[in-house]
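help with this:

***
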Amino acid sequence: MMRSVHTPRRIRGATLVELVIAITVIAIAVASVLGLLSAISMRSASAMTATQAASIASAYLDEALSKAFTDPGGPAEAGRPDYDDVIDYNFTDVGARDASGNPVAGLGQYTVQVSTASPVALGAVPNAIRVDVRVTAPDGAITLLSGFRTSYAGQVVRP
């Protein structure tokens, strides 16, 4: 029996040029994906900061608007824990603080400014006090919330 001897075919591999082109294409693709992920994470952090600033402003505004229209105890308020009427709310906090004046952990880079205006007419409502809460986020973005506290029946406007 005769065996036929065949010479094996030459197995072709990738050439050096093909490898360099493949590595370059992969590097460009990876760089593009990493750039996209970086941009997404920056927008996500910005959105979180804006949401946090809005929450802080809302908490301060709710606190101020929950107080009396007129001063029930006289002008002896020493600090925010003693504020008993809406007009007392004219201050700046460096770092968000709770109603007792204690710093809130993790929110020390926010600045909160609360201001009130003298009573004014608001449409058909003769007496209304405007409360503005301005929160400056760590990235410099400013969030402003405003609300009005009105004098309900039986309340007298403080001079």
